[in-house]
Structure to design on (381 residues):
């Protein structure tokens, strides 16, 4: 299907048509004071000028912008030299299109040509016969010769605004993507932990069903409590109010490890000094993920948690005496499956590091640098 022919770009609306009003005076002069060959030649030049005027509006998408610009300048120069200074005002059209140039070299070259086209006929006419009525030309000439700068500045601002809108749109998309990743990590770290415990409790019930009915009822009640906890976590996650703490996660870890028959020991003091809330929350969620992985994959009987603070960083170590990790454990798929990818992403937000090793089981070492603010700068701010 053929697209309809546009006289002028639709995005510009009625603006190109309004500017045609300025051709009224040249047309009146041509039909009033000229006849014969000069009249015919003038009509041809006016028609060519109109064609160039239309083509220049499509200059951004069509070749030949410079050709049509030079044609306009040539027509204005010919009119002004042969017909009169009234036709100098047609330079307002060309001045507008010169302001479209974004490259400085092209802009200044075209501007110099415009100055020559406008000033040479003016100087020539004044030297031939001075007329006080010519004084009215100068204010309009000054406006015309300065207008390309205004047009160029306006177009630059419009272009910057378009780039800013595009950048803002990209930022919004990045924020949406980051928010999706955050929600995915939170769902994995919160519900994954609780559901693992529910699964473990269900397996215990299956084994004790025919042996110890009282223990089965106790485990069933524990499953109910964990289910309610999962529901609460979902509500808190949706409202974005949940902030994990190391103290709270250590209690949860003790319950989960105990349910799996894994002994837990703690070394060091988990109450880090001067730790920002964001870093505290990230380390807490990393601890939760590590404990969940131990219960699900390690086949361990003992888990050691170590906390240490140096002058440079906060350190947390999680070690078990299970089957350890295989060579493939560092691959992307396994990392993603075990939640290690989300753990690394969280640590990256606070410039933290994570190292996973085989050490008579699995050894996970996490560290987050301590950022010390300059007191003088803080006081100055």
């Amino acid at each position: 299907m053929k697209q309809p022919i546009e006289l002028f770009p639709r995005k510009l609306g009625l603006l190109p048509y309004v500017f045609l009003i300025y051709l009224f005076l040249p047309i009146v002069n041509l039909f009033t004071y000229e006849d014969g060959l000069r009249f015919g030649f003038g009509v041809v030049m006016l028609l060519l000028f109109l064609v160039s005027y239309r083509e220049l509006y499509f200059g951004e998408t069509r070749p030949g912008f410079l050709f049509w610009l030079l044609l306009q300048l040539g027509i204005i120069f010919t009119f002004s030299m042969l017909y009169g200074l009234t036709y100098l005002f047609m330079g307002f059209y060309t001045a507008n299109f010169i302001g479209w140039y974004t490259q400085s070299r092209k802009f200044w070259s075209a501007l110099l040509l415009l100055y020559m086209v406008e000033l040479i006929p003016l100087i020539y006419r004044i030297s031939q016969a001075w007329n006080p009525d010519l004084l009215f030309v100068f204010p309009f000439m000054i406006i015309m010769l300065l207008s390309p700068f205004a047009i160029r500045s306006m177009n630059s601002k419009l272009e910057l605004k378009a780039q800013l809108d595009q950048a803002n749109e990209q930022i919004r998309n990045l924020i949406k993507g980051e928010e999706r990743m955050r929600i995915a990590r939170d769902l994995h770290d919160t519900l994954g932990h609780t559901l693992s415990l529910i699964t473990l409790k269900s397996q215990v019930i299956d084994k004790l069903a025919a042996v110890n009915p009282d223990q089965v009822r106790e485990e069933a009640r524990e499953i109910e409590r964990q289910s309610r906890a999962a529901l609460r976590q979902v509500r808190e996650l949706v409202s974005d109010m949940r902030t994990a703490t190391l103290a709270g996660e250590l209690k949860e870890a003790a319950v989960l490890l105990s349910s799996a028959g894994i002994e837990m020991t703690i070394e060091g003091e988990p109450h880090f000094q001067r730790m920002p809330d964001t870093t505290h929350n990230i380390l807490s969620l990393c601890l939760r993920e590590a404990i969940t992985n131990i219960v699900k994959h390690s086949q361990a009987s003992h888990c050691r948690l170590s906390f240490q603070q140096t002058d440079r960083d906060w350190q947390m170590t999680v070690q078990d005496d299970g089957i350890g990790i295989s060579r493939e454990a560092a691959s992307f798929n396994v990392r993603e499956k075990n939640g290690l990818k989300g753990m690394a992403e969280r640590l990256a937000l606070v410039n933290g590091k994570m190292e996973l090793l085989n050490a008579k089981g699995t050894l996970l070492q996490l560290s987050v640098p301590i950022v010390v603010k300059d007191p003088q700068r803080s006081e100055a701010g």
Observations:
- Residues 137-208 form the longest helix (72 residues).
- Confidence is low (pLDDT under 50) at residues 375-381.
- The chain has 13 helices and five strands.
